[in-house]
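A favour, since you know our structure tokens better than I do. What I am after is a single protein written out in full by you. Could you add the entry underneath, on a fresh line?


***
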Amino acid sequence: LRREGLVVNHKKLFRLYREEKLAVRRRGGRKRAIGTRAPMLVPLRPDERWSLDFVSDQLTDGRRFRILAVVDDCTRECLALIVDTSLSGMRVARELDRLITERGRPQMIVSDNGSELTSNAILDWADQNRVEWHYIAPGKPMQNGFIESFNGRLRDELLNETL
């Protein structure tokens, strides 16, 4: 901390704060979508449960792009790879609508708590289409292991091999 030529050691400043019982005001955490967090059953039929996740990379000119991967948890089949520089919640909802017309409606969709997947557009879409949306616990990607495994193979076999 420097003020008017006075230098105060951060350790001394911390000690003074503690002695005076002062505290720096902590900011609140970010709001997360509620969704369901109950344990999931293993899917027994195709199109019963889909998993969604994003993979990001960059082009040789430095521009970043994202890939939305949609995987069927029963068959481990990749249903869609949507690539763009920006994928909003509304775009994700549109792509899910397109996928439902091709494949049928899943009973459940599993995803992490990313901002695109917790947006009002997605929450409204799930209500309108009567699809249960399951959010994995924050910091626990293995709760969505099928898509994480697929993303690892996608990165190894495609993204890390090509420019």
